[in-house]
Write a structure and sequence with these properties.
Elements lengths: L22 H19 L4 H8 L3 H13 L3 E3 L14 E3 L5 E7 L3 E8 L4 E8 L5 H17 L3 H5 L1 E8 L7 H4 L3 H5 L6 H8 L4 E5 H12 L8 E6 L3 E7 L2 E2 L14 E3 L5 E3 L6 H10 L6 H4 L8 H25 L4 E6 L3 H16 L10 E4 L6 H15 L3 H4 L5
Parallel strand pairs: 3-6, 6-7, 8-13, 13-14
Antiparallel strand pairs: 1-2, 3-4, 4-5, 8-9, 9-10, 11-12
Length: about 400
């Protein structure tokens, strides 16, 4: 970017987050604000930016020229209005910044390269019985080196970093995954971010996988439409995220939206958790019990085999469980919407959402405002895209909530 985001105290080297707004800080903030507004609206002219931010036309002109010079903004064709000079819309330059995203799941891993506008340019998918730190490190190191070998030096220099999305406490639910406890226990002491930083030539950022998926939905999906929503993502297990006032709410430990751990009534009259009623692992178990090969749900998540009645029963069970979970979370926070996504095709997602709407309408919701139930727009790559978003938003954008306080 054209300026440094934060200045450090020369003696201590520590950044004071409450420090004063010196000229460097103000310019860096304004640059991030401009980039964030352009991302949200697709393209904006200098006059649009000035009107929405309250900055002077001269200040906006200086900032946008600098961002264009840095290759972060591209100018479009002049748009002639009724009077005056034609306006020139500016948009994000897809080639301006690249970012890598790694999703570590309990059954598969994905590594992607994403451009500045959120388009996935390169993707690699690997499946396994269960993940190990050594296996993930080998997969990433080999894949990244192969990817870098196929790119030019200018393209490599534009990589902002790699974001990593993985389930927190990956060693839990050993029985459900069917993995040896000793192998999953290796994750207890593995600092995967530090291990990757030793092997890769760019910064590494870490986030809970479901929270990362929620961040992708906020940035590239329904984010502009709903100010508050609960987000459910069905992967091997089920997780989620919370958005409040157009901003991701990570919670005290970064694990807000851990819906899979929600206490849930079991079929035998006892209690278990939501993951026992809504997860892809549950479908795998149902298929195995029916004598079917479940491998396509991990090998080709967007194109499952035709599992017939077993899949239909799983969709019904999942939708019923999600309806009860949605009512529960909406009794705590008055969510405007509940968004459902997962590691499968749009058709499966649509079917689950339809059952959830039907079942939710049949519950006693007295005292609870009925939320809108929508399918996620990002899809099965949401966790990897959310991971790849981490370096981009860390360096080039501001909190989403600020954008909705812009001047009308």
């Amino acid at each position: 970017m054209a300026s440094t985001y934060l200045e450090q105290d020369s003696a201590s080297g520590v950044v004071d987050p409450m420090g004063g707004a010196n000229q460097t800080r103000v310019r860096a903030y304004n640059e991030r604000l401009v980039l964030s507004l352009v991302r949200r609206h697709g393209s904006l002219s200098k006059a649009d930016i000035a009107r929405r931010t309250g900055l002077s036309a001269q200040t906006v002109s200086v900032i946008m020229r600098a961002l264009e010079k840095d290759g972060l903004l591209s100018r479009g064709s002049p748009q002639r209005g009724r009077v005056g000079q034609p306006s020139i819309p500016m948009s994000l330059n897809p080639d301006g910044v690249l970012s890598l995203g790694l999703k570590i799941g309990r059954r598969s891993a994905d590594l992607i390269m994403m451009d500045f506008t959120g388009s996935v340019r390169w993707q690699l998918h690997e499946t396994y019985r269960y993940p190990t730190p050594s296996g993930i490190l080998s997969f990433v190191e080999e894949s990244v080196m192969r990817m870098l070998a196929g790119t030019g030096s200018a393209e490599r220099e534009r990589i902002a970093g790699i974001g990593v999305a993985l389930p927190f406490e990956l060693w839990n639910w050993v029985e459900e995954v069917g993995a040896p406890q000793a192998d999953l226990d290796a994750w207890r002491h593995a600092d995967i971010a530090a291990l990757l930083a030793e092997r890769l030539p760019f910064p590494v950022l870490l986030q809970n996988d479901a929270t990362a998926a929620c961040a992708a939905e906020l940035a590239f999906g329904h984010g502009p439409r709903f100010s508050d929503f609960a987000y459910f993502f069905l992967g091997s297990f089920i997780g989620g995220g919370v958005v409040l006032n157009h901003a991701l709410y990570p919670g005290r430990t970064g694990n807000a939206g851990a819906f899979g751990s929600m206490p849930f009534p079991s079929r035998d009259g006892g209690h278990d958790q939501l993951i026992d009623h809504a997860s892809v692992v549950l479908l795998e178990k149902m298929l195995l019990e029916a004598g079917r090969n479940p491998s396509s749900i991990w090998l080709t998540p967007e194109n499952w085999d035709d599992f017939g009645d077993t899949a239909a029963l799983w969709i019904e069970r999942t939708g019923r469980a999600l309806a009860l979970a949605a009512a529960t979370v909406c009794s705590v926070v008055d969510f405007e919407a509940v968004i459902i996504d997962g590691g499968f095709s749009a058709a499966i997602r649509s079917a689950i959402a339809a059952v959830t709407r039907r079942e939710l309408a049949g519950l006693n919701l007295q005292g609870i405002a009925m939320p809108v139930v929508e399918e996620g727009l990002v899809g099965s790559s949401a966790r990897a895209i959310g991971a790849a978003s981490l370096p981009l938003f860390s360096r080039y954008h501001i909190d989403q909530s600020v954008l909705f306080k812009e001047m009308a």
